[in-house]
Design a protein that fits this description.
alpha+beta; 5-stranded antiparallel β-sheet; 1 helix; binds zinc ion; 5 strands
């Protein structure tokens, strides 16, 4: 059994709307999923910069 750990990265865009990207850790893989759109990605390392780049590029939102 894998231990599944979920963490969230939230960011606020220029309109004050909040966007959340969830990072689910499953064994050696991290699944990065955006709640606002259907973007998702799999990463072995450094999911957080990927999430922050998506939030900036797709939603114009800066992570807190
Ligand atoms: Zn998104």
């Amino acid at each position: 059994m894998f231990t599944v750990t979920t963490s969230r990265i939230t960011a606020t865009d220029a309109q004050g709307q909040q966007h959340t990207v969830r990072v689910t850790r499953r064994g050696q893989w991290r699944h990065v999923e955006c709640d606002t759109c259907d973007w998702r990605q799999r990463a072995q390392l450094l999911p957080r910069p990927k999430a922050e780049r998506h939030l900036a590029e797709a939603h114009g939102a800066a992570a807190a």
